Amino acid sequence: MKVFVEAVKAVAEENRLRALMALRGGELCVCQITELLGLAPSTVSRHMSILSRAGLVQSRKDGRWVNYSLVGPEIESEAAETLSWVIGTLSETEQIGADEIRLKEILKIDREVLCKKQSPCQAKG
Fold first, then answer.
1. Do residues 27 and 67 make contact, with C-beta atoms less than 8 angstroms apart?
2. DSSP-derived secondary structure letter, 29
3. Which of 13, 40, 81, 82 has a CA-to-CA distance to 88 between 20 and 30 Å?
């Protein structure tokens, strides 16, 4: 039950939901998530940490970048069900549609450029 409670707490915030939905397309750097959400890197890092502790995302360090992705098949069942519910519920919403369009543009921008714009772009996972 603890896993379920943590997962529900983690998804009880709009920016964390938007980040989860953005990760459906694959791994993203903190600077890309920051650009999408329009938040400070430290705020995005905190949100991603909450999602990570809830077992919904995983992080991977790549040089100076921290990348996040949705967890794989090893995910605990309560977290998997929460993730499935979130994705199924929000996939067709206006905000997520707008985020998908914006994310396509963000992915065209070199991470170095995003990092310089947001300096510092690294976050602790």
1. yes
2. E
3. 40
Write the pLDDT tens digit of every residue in 19-77.
999 999 999 999 999 999 999 999 999 999 999 999 899 999 988 889 999 987 677 67
Q: What angle do CA 6, 75, 51 make, to 5 degrees?
A: 40
For the four alpha carbons of 9, 13, 16 and 18, in that order, the dihedral sign comes to positive
Q: Are 24 and 89 in contact (CB under 8 A)?
A: no
Q: Does the pTM of the predicted model rise above 0.85? A: yes
d(CA 27, CA 34): 14
Residue 46: how many other CB atoms lie within 10 Å: 16
